[in-house]
Amino acid sequence: MAKKLSITLVHSPAHRSEVQRRTAQALGLRKLHQTVIRDDTPTIRGMVERIRHLVDVREVEVE
Fold it and tell me: CA-to-CA distance for 13 and 27, rounded, in angstroms?
């Protein structure tokens, strides 16, 4: 089973630094309360860590 991350944007990236706004966009998060599923890789984990105060992250098991 592959591990994936469910990432939900819970706080707006407006009025945040340009880096944080672009990181949210790179993850595919465009609207508030939008959820995306991404592979659990070190790159994605690093992006999530950079905007951890804006998102809610859960591990998901996918077959």
Answer: 13
- pLDDT at position 58: 97
The CATH number of whichever domain residue 41 belongs to comes to 3.30.1390.20
Total tally of structural domains belonging to the chain: 1
For residue 2, the model assigns a pLDDT of 82
- The token pair at 36 is 């995306």
> Which domain covers residue 48, as residue numbers?
2-62
